[in-house]
Amino acid sequence: MTLRRTIANCLATLAAGMVFAATLAARPQQTQGPIAPKPGTPVQQAPAGTIRVRVALVTAPVVVIGAKDEPVLDLEQKDFHILDDGKDQTIESFELGGEKLSAVLVFETSSRIAPLLPSVQKAAIVFTQTIVGPSGEAAVLSYDDSIKTLLPFSTDNDKIEKTIANLQPGNSGARLYDALSGAVGLLRDRPSGERRAIVVVGEASDSGSEEKLGRVLREAQLSNIVIYSVGLSPTSAALRAPPSQAGPASATPPGTFGGPSFPGSAQTPTNQQQYGGNIDLLGLAEWAVRNATAVVKDRPLEVAATATGGTYQATFKEHTIDSAVDAIGAELNSQYMLSYRPTGSDSPGYHQIKISVNRPGVKVRTRPGYFLEAK
Hints:
Elements: H1 2-26, E1 58-65, E2 80-84, E3 87-88, E4 91-96, E5 101-108, H2 117-122, H3 124-132, E6 137-143, E7 147-154, H4 157-165, H5 176-188, E8 195-202, H6 213-222, E9 225-231, H7 234-240, H8 269-277, H9 281-290, H10 300-308, E10 312-314, H11 321-332, E11 336-340, E12 349-357, E13 363-365, E14 369-372
């Protein structure tokens, strides 16, 4: 009896093993891939300077200006038409302002603009009231020859104002591009449904950055980040500085200019500014993004704003710092946000965005495009 029972048990075990093996054989083979990290394990970041994002959803900020230079706010989704590299796109989402805003406020604190810092500090409440608002959030960065995160993302407007009001002058460096890169990095990880903006307050020059403007703008475009800039004037800072800080004497006699003039015309401050101002900002912005490692020397703050669909506000004659920030806040509240998933145009390289509206006599401004890396 014992022998029979032992044989029966062995046969049952063998049969179960055969069923298990057959079950395994019938299962489809799983694709080999990396093992998912355990919860809490730090995610290894891509090397600095590389594009980490492949475009899935493109968001284009659009401002429509009427004949009297006022924003047009009564357009509907059906009024907009989008081309991506010349191919029609279907608008997936459409809003006028609305979505929560995540902003990084970036301030130059170099010694060159130190005389203007009190004016920036006094504008602290304007940043929170017109840009951050009651439902937004902001982080605060400063830059001279180093980049400092003065405040991580916060919804506490009092903390944001206090951080701005306590900005301290630094040394003579001005790593503008590195500061913009740091701001893009902070915003890239915010929830995808939020609007993302950078507001940089500084002079239109860079000194000592490791990053290149074109590469920073590529990442900003891919992450659907809009850059606004408030230009501080070194000339205005020099006029406010004590005599000992007014800088070196001019290399040319008073009333003359070191650069070339218009042929056949006398050199004056007005025509010299116009002579240096005839730059195709849209073309320069596109060139900078296409040639990511090339050096951009002319008007980088304006190029950054143009490339991402934002605006540049000068503060020497055109605006005070308060009014420049207020103008940016007004635009953020009158911006249409159009999103689409590119179809028929996913090839690597630069993609041009063209947006038009079904209303005559208006001007449409948006970002010119974005750059896709090869897989």
